């Protein structure tokens, strides 16, 4: 069984994500958005990029790609599903996760390392981390501002798993880079098998790239895959 | 803008002599479509007619050069079957007319030059120049250019890894936007543009052809600007990074499967250029059916279709047996493709519309027979007067005051306002990111690394084009050496004013001489370049602004390359290289404190350059921090290390002027211990410690205060 990495036209982080998945022992396979069969996959990742050019609205066209029906049904059966950046935007747009991503508060693209605090370990993204752990991971988005009208601790049925914080782990206005509601950087569904985050953990998996803090998130995902399938 | 009385060739930007050249060549009056083709292909932008005779001065020969100037990009050998492709281009005039789209399409164009060679583009660097930010319009231009580069580069999925910015009054009405791109490929994937094989098929891939950008090369890029030229906005193309992303993936798959004989991107002059160059380069001809081109809008004339500069298009030459597979790969990547012609024995390029011949010209003549001008040159009258305005530097300085003023300069202050808008991490290759002297990329799966730095210095070049241009070559070499790479290949972008002004021609010729000499001194081949002339608005020429893009190479790459954030408490500070010689002409001190631009920049010693660059690249394997001393001198360079490392320093007593002296070929080294093992002159001058920038008797400033000034310099002006 493999981890399906979904590639839409305009996706650009598929190879980086494949690289990171391989590092934690998962066998990644790139799957084109017009495919309709994920029977060989025991887990799914929607990587970052600009699916369909982000035209109309980020994720708005991608949610209608043929593969998304299959992603939705796997998510419903409890298979681990992860959306990174654009992948998170697509999961929200498809209604698989709640809330929405809008333009950053200062209307500029932001590419820089940010610090995140682990808020919950009940998800495929954070299972191997510890609550309160601070991770340095790059952010790279224009529409990274997460909005929700629900309560911050329990965003509808979803739960918050990562928040933007300062290097000490405190939630300060200055540490929230894009204006996200309650500094939310990542969420999971109530079952914990579907998670999404705006920062790019695959860009923080080796010290030579500046941080290895993303590795624990991929290790969480890998552990979740094996616990579901064994 | 058009006038019934004006002859067609004049409206298209051609002189009477050039028109006569066309009629002589064809032996008849050109048809309208033919005239359109020659007008663009013989424009300054496409033909380099004013500079071509001087460009031969550049030496492009070294054993590691695989493809030199003349193709879409230069290609060098990195060993073990790896090649790198590099190229630089300007998009100056379009960016003034419409900054966002002008800069965006500049990125798109340079990327096509890279993947045309078979390479995957892996990085972009931008060298940009504007007028002072106190002027609202200059802020608008900077904002638009940066958002255009970010919008295109991020979405197309190629990281923007660095660059440089300069502000000076003469760029107010003529900003410069130069973009360099780098790609890597395996040796067997190299593709060239020469069509071969009679009967092979020409397939146009990508975007539909529309009326955008018609005359972009001839009218916009090859003439000076005057009041009211905003009307030229329709000549600016519109970029679609999504289309380009799909095109990149489709083309890379075509190369991977060996399905193309040759390929050419469509840039300036669109289909005219791509068909004539592929055919002409291969010594062949081509028959083109213009009706087969997929169009964005109806009612385009054959001339418009041939000249359109619609973006994101490629022309692939394919064997007949492979056409179906090529079309199927295009369809898989959701890009349009149309079969528009076939390769003939030549030498004519024949274009048909509705079964009628609308153009028949010798294919190679569009490129090869373009006029070449040996334009008159004259040493500028301003030089003696400027050299006489010597920088006045007092013996005693308040270092805190001077440094504060310098750090508040938007070209010296923190530029992360720009670089944080660019994705600079994609592909997981970025080992040293923007904010350092150069950027360092690893090649995954190997021990190899590539470093890139783009450099320009228009004010110093204005004061002495030869010395100024030579110095930017050495500076770019040091910028890659400080992160462990040895200078390996260079591309240049020559941005100058109106070549019909003999003083501008003199600047151009002198700058070429300086750059060519400097490259020879350090054995760096010039593998490609771009010339942008007519950077003149309302009669004022820009400061001469040659820009270089230096590729450095290391194998193995240092395990821990030097970085500005690696200084630790108690580490020693050395300066290696030349003794300071009092070089203040075009220095930040003279510009900012004295509001002066004068004096003559010092000459550079080629032997010293070679030694310092080599010694620096060697030290990069052991030193935690290496930093080139350039704009603002020693004080600014040390402050930059302090900000990144979060640590102050104390310096020994130095002559105050040495702190801001911009004598070239000097590098700061920071590391443990008290002695440095290197063959070049060096001197220990202080220690990193505490939270104060302590310049001994020249004064001190707290790390936090200095960093606040530095951090706010650019963002505060952009609010």
Please give a structural write-up.
The complex is a heterodimer of chains A (230) and B (719). Chain A has helices at 14-23, 67-76, 86-93, 215-229, and strands spanning 2-7, 28-32, 41-46, 81-84, 100-102, 110-118, 134-141, 145-147, 154-155, 158-165, 184-188, 194-197. Chain A has 230 residues and is an alpha/beta fold. Chain A has one domain: Class I glutamine amidotransferase (GATase) domain (Rossmann fold, 3-Layer(aba) Sandwich). In chain A, the strands form two sheets. In chain A, strands 1, 2, 3, 4, 6, 7, 9, 10, 11 and 12 form a ten-stranded mixed sheet that branches. Chain A has a two-stranded antiparallel ribbon with strand order 5-8. In chain A, strand 11 (184-188) and strand 12 (194-197) form a beta hairpin. Chain A is globular. The N and C termini of chain A lie close together (12 Å). Chain B is α+β, with helices and mostly antiparallel strands. Chain B folds into two domains: 1-60 and 191-370, Phosphoribosyl-aminoimidazole Synthetase, Chain A, domain 2 (Alpha-Beta Complex); 382-718, 60s Ribosomal Protein L30, Chain: A (2-Layer Sandwich). Chain B is 34% helix and 23% strand. Chain B is built from 24 helices and 28 strands. Chain B has a seven-stranded mixed sheet with strand order 8-10-7-11-9-12-13. In chain B, helix 8 links the parallel strand 4 and strand 5 (160-167). Chain B is globular. The model of chain B has no long low-confidence stretch (mean pLDDT 94). The chains are: A alpha/beta (230), B alpha+beta (719).
Give the key terms.
heterodimer; A: 230 residues; alpha/beta; Rossmann fold; ten-stranded mixed β-sheet; two-stranded antiparallel ribbon; 12 strands; B: 719 residues; alpha+beta; Phosphoribosyl-aminoimidazole Synthetase, Chain A, domain 2; 60s Ribosomal Protein L30, Chain: A; 2 domains; seven-stranded mixed β-sheet; 24 helices; 23% strand; globular
């Amino acid at each position: 069984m493999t981890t399906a990495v979904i590639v839409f036209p305009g996706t650009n982080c598929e190879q980086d994500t494949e690289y990171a998945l391989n590092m934690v022992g998962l066998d990644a396979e790139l799957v084109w958005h017009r495919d309709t069969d994920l029977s060989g996959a025991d887990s799914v990742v929607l990587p970052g990029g600009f699916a369909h050019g982000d035209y109309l609205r980020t994720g708005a066209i991608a949610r209608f790609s043929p593969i998304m029906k299959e992603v939705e049904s796997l998510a419903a059966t409890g298979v681990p599903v992860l959306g990174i950046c654009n992948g998170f935007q697509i999961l929200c747009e498809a209604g698989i996760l709640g809330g929405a991503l809008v333009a950053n508060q200062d209307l500029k693209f932001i590419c820089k390392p940010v610090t995140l605090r682990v808020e919950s370990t009940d998800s495929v993204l954070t299972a191997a981390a510890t609550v309160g752990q601070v991770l340095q991971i790059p952010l790279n988005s224009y529409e990274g501002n997460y909005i929700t009208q629900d309560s911050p601790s329990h965003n509808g049925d979803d739960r918050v798993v990562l928040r933007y914080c300062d290097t000490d782990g405190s939630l300060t206005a200055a540490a929230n880079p894009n204006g996200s509601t309650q500094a939310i950087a990542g969420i999971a569904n109530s079952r914990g098998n579907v998670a999404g985050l705006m920062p790019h953990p695959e860009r923080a998996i080796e010290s030579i790239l500046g941080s290895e803090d993303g590795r624990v998130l991929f290790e969480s995902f890998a552990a979740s895959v094996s616990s579901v399938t064994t | 803008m058009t006038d019934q009385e004006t002859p067609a060739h004049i409206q298209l930007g051609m002189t009477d002599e050039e028109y006569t050249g066309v009629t002589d060549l064809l032996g008849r009056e050109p048809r309208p479509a033919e005239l359109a083709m020659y007008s663009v292909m013989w424009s300054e932008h496409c033909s380099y007619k004013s500079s071509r005779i001087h460009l031969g001065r550049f030496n492009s020969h070294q054993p590691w050069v695989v493809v030199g100037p003349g193709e879409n990009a230069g290609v060098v050998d990195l060993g073990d079957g790896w090649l790198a492709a590099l190229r630089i281009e300007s998009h100056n005039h379009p960016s003034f007319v419409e900054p966002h789209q002008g800069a965006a399409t500049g990125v798109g164009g340079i990327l096509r030059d890279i993947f045309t060679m078979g390479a995957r583009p892996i990085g972009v660097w931008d060298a940009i120049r504007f007028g002072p930010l106190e002027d609202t319009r200059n802020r608008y231009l900077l904002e638009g250019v940066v958002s255009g580069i970010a919008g295109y580069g991020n979405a197309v999925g190629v990281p923007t890894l660095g660059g440089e910015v300069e502000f000076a009054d003469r760029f107010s009405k003529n900003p410069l936007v130069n973009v360099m791109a780098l790609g890597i490929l395996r040796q067997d994937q190299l593709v060239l543009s020469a069509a071969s094989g009679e009967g092979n098929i020409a397939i146009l891939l990508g975007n539909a052809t529309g009326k955008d950008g018609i005359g972009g090369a001839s009218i916009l890029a090859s003439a000076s600007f005057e009041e009211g030229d905003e009307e030229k906005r329709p000549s600016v193309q519109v970029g679609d990074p999504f289309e380009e992303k799909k095109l990149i993936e489709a083309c890379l798959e075509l190369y991977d499967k060996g399905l193309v004989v040759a390929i050419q991107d469509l840039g300036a002059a669109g289909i005219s250029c791509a068909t004539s160059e592929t055919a002409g380069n291969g010594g062949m001809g081509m028959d083109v059916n213009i009706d087969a081109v997929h169009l964005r809008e109806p009612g385009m004339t054959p001339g418009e279709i041939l000249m359109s500069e619609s973006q994101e298009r490629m022309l692939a030459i394919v064997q007949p047996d492979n056409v179906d597979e090529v079309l199927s790969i295009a369809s898989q990547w959701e890009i349009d493709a149309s079969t528009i012609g076939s390769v003939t024995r030549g030498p004519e390029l024949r274009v048909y519309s509705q079964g009628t011949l609308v153009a028949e010209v010798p294919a190679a003549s569009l490129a090869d027979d373009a006029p070449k001008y040996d334009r008159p040159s004259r040493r500028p009258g301003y030089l003696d007067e400027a050299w006489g305005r010597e920088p006045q530097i007092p013996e005693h300085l308040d270092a805190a005051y001077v440094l504060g003023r310098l750090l508040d300069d938007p070209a010296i202050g923190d530029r992360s306002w720009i670089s944080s808008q660019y994705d600079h991490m994609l592909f997981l290759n970025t080992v040293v990111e923007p904010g350092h002297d150069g950027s360092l990329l690893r090649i995954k799966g190997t021990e190899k690394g590539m470093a890139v730095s783009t450099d320009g210095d228009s004010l110093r070049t204005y004061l002495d084009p030869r010395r100024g241009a030579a110095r930017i070559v050495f500076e770019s070499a040091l910028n890659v050496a400080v992160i462990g790479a040895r200078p390996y290949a260079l591309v240049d972008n020559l941005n100058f004013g109106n070549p019909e002004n003999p003083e501008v021609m003199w600047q151009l010729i002198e700058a070429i001489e300086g750059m060519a000499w400097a490259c020879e001194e350090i054995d760096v081949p010039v593998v490609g370049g771009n010339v942008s002339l007519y950077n003149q608005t309302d009669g004022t020429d820009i400061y001469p602004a040659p820009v270089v893009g230096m590729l450095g190479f290391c194998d193995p790459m240092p395990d821990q390359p030097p970085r500005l954030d690696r200084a630790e408490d108690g580490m020693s500070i050395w300066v290696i290289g030349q003794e300071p010689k009092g070089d203040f002409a075009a220095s930040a001190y003279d510009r900012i404190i004295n509001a002066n631009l004068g004096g003559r920049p010092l000459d550079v010693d080629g032997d010293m350059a070679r030694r310092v660059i080599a010694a620096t690249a060697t030290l990069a394997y052991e030193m935690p921090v290496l930093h080139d001393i350039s704009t603002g001198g020693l004080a600014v360079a040390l402050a930059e290390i302090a900000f990144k490392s979060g640590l102050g320093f104390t310096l020994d007593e130095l002559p105050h002027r040495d702190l801001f002296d911009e004598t070239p070929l000097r590098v700061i080294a920071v590391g443990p211990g008290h002695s440095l093992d290197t063959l070049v002159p060096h001197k220990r001058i202080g220690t990193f410690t505490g939270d104060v920038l302590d310049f001994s008797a020249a004064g001190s400033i707290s790390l936090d205060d200095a960093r606040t000034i530095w951090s706010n310099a650019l963002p505060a002006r952009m609010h």
